[in-house]
Amino acid sequence: MARAVSLAACSGGPVAHWLACSQWLSSKQISCRLSAFILLTGIYFASPLAWADNEFRISAIPDEAPTELIRKFEPLAEYLSQSLDRPVSFVPVTDYAAAVEALVSEQIDMAWLGGFTYIQAAQRSGDTVEPIIQRAEDERFQTVFITQSDSDIQSLADLKGVDFIFGSPSSTSGHLMPRHYMAQAGIVVDDDLSIAFSGAHDATAFAVAGGRVEAGALNIKVWEKLVAEQRVDTNKLRVFYTTPEYHDYNWTIRSGLSVETRQRLVDAFLNLDPADADQKAILDLQRASRFIPTEARFYDGIKDAAIAAELLAAP
Amino acid sequence: MRVSPKLDDPDRASRLWIGVGLLLLLAIALQGSKFDLLQLVEQNSWDAATDFFTTFWPPRTDTEFLQRLLGAAIVTVSIATVATVLAMLIAIPLAIMITSRLSLSARGRPMRRHARLFRSLLRAMAIFLRSVPELIWALLFVGVTGLGATAGIIGLLLTNIGILAKNYAEIIESGEATITGHLLDNGNGRLKTLLHGTLGQGLPELLSYSVYRWECTLRTSVVLGFVGAGGLGQELLISVRQLASPEVFSIILVFVLLVFVADSLSASLRHQLSGISSQAANTSVCVRYDQLRSEPVYGAMFHRYGMALLVVAMVIACFGSIDWKLHQWLRADSLGRSLEFVQGFLAPDVSATMLRKLAEQAMETLSMAFAGTVLASGVAIVLSYTLFVLHLREEKTIGFSLLISIIHSMQIVLRSIPELVWAMLLIVAVGIGPFTGTLALFAASVGVLSRLYSECLHNQEKHTLENLLSNGGSVNLAPLWSTMVQARSQLISYCLYRWEHNLRAATLMGIVGAGGVGQELYFRLSLFQFNKVATCIMVIVLMVVLADTVSHSLRHRFAPSV
After folding, report:
1. pTM of structure
2. Structural domain tally of chain A?
3. B92 in contact with A, Cβ within 8 Å
4. Any domain includes A43
5. Is A146 in the same domain as A238?
6. C-alpha distances in angstroms, B199 versus A264, B175, B203?
7. What is the pLDDT of residues B491-545, one digit of tens each?
8. Chain A residues lying within 8 Å of B234, measured CB to CB
9. What is the ipTM score, two decimals?
């Protein structure tokens, strides 16, 4: 920097001379374009864009399409802002790891994480983030393995040598747990299969349906939704294995939130009342019958599975 | 009368072998990139693609959305401007330190050993900086700076420093060596020599290149949506992921428009700058100085300072509009996390499994880059040749002008959209895998190469062609035996440059699922396994540096004149 300054100071001679001789800055056309640009910038700054300081920010791992996420979380944000007495905004992120980083670096206050992403966040924050609440359904979550109806695959053991697709690398039900149960069935995922990642659960189903891979694993809830909405053809696809139950998604808060805020959040979720039409709508969007408190220790199994699969460093 | 002395091509054997070798390589590359055009017409792909692309029209144009896009466009411009300006500030001193032109110790004798060592170290650093793609730098810095514009700016900044420092040094070295030499020999200090000798010759070119780089940065910045850098890239990424076609189309339109404006702005700036540099070369300093004194050019002066002020204001506005989140940087835990990342580089994972997997994906990357470039080059040659012949015919029928403008607008669209964005769009139709990556590289390269090839054909000297035509040569074929032969080495050199570029781009394709080494990188980043991330980055840097070297030597061999 000092060099640049001295350069500018000493350059009186040749540089000023060059500038004076030059015509490059005199184009009327360019000055018009630049003025237009600066005008636009001015308009932009005039519009209010600053974030309110006391805003409570929530986010979620993008396990489904972002519009779906926004549709799903905005009514909840609205509801929470009443309980917390402060504005709540939903911040969309572009991938799983980004949600973890945002929570760990305290850019957001609370995130909807999967089991594995929660474990990652806990490890990266030195165990200062805390899972507080989850859907009743998340206590017993499952993964389905799908293949084409006419394929020869009948069980996990038949997966040797096939092209297989997972969801996101950081997904619990789309990667970690299916990998775990494959390993238990004696499959060495990295050696016995050729694997790819689709990025999201619905994308996994479409990839198998499209015939580009022979089999894949996805979140059972998303599978049920796709079937119910007839977005996949059950004549073409079949489930050949469903995993045992495990703990999955939860709402995790960052470290340093006040005890009062934490309590208000827990109460707000627990008090969601299916009898109230508005609150029923929120529960339906979350595909939850009700919310229940959760604890860090419920995720020890997932942590062990992640360490065994070498997806997480041993502590 | 038929005179037929046997006009054997003395190089026939070697040409034949090169041709066969290229075809063989192409076959291997097509195989390696799982190239399968039938996949495009499969029922499933077809359905997905028609669903996605037929809903492009009409684009979303409600005021709220357009306001958001305007804001995003301004963020994109700000990020590109800030990154370029900062990179210039760092690259200028770096280039001055790299070049041996201003070395005092090297005057009339070999350079001192530690000076030479220091210069090679800086040069290696510049190479490393530009070999790692912007997006990878940005992904790495997300941990330190948090999500947002800062990580994106750092990514663009680091790569730009490497590119600018290299090119600044080359520009400085392309100047007349005797002038700086004399100045140094006569006892002038290095700073004086720099200001009066080096800058006097190279400034227009230096500025011109910086402006060009700004334009390129603007185009690349769209991929930084992946790190939440904001701007059009993030809007696009979100809309593509949700398959919201009308939004995608609007964003692409705005982006193409923005790139087009930046393109013409930068072209006109550079045009004026090149005018000055030729003027500077032809006229002595004294003459110009006298002319200046004799002409009262207050109007021009007013414009000049007005413009300088506007540029400064624009840069300041850009700096001001960025949310730097500096408080994120100084936190102990952020620093701790970045340390974790550095540690990964100190102990990279070189286990056999990891290396085998990377080798496999590296082959895929190389195949994608090669197949994409060769196919695009073939199509681009046909396109630009057709355009050339159409211009030659000078038939001003509506049909012809329509065809020409269709080809032109296609070129603009193809090259305005970065490869990675093409990959995101094509993945909807083609699905994950290297085939998508190859098609994406192909699409963007056709746009760029056909434009470069067209310009190149038009710039060739026309005597031979006119001779052939006046002797009855066919308009369709005569350029093949004249213009094409003249342009050959330049065409090859453009193709090689593009291949280099495509290889860099191919290393990123895996991030969106379009195959190659980016897949492993993204996987390991998602798992925060920095020692494996380090191995991936090293493989990428190795490939890029190798490609640079190979392309450099091939250019020397086949296109010595360029």
Report:
1. 0.81
2. 2
3. yes
4. no
5. yes
6. 65, 9, 5
7. 999 999 999 999 999 998 988 888 899 989 888 888 888 899 999 999 998 999 8
8. 94
9. 0.76
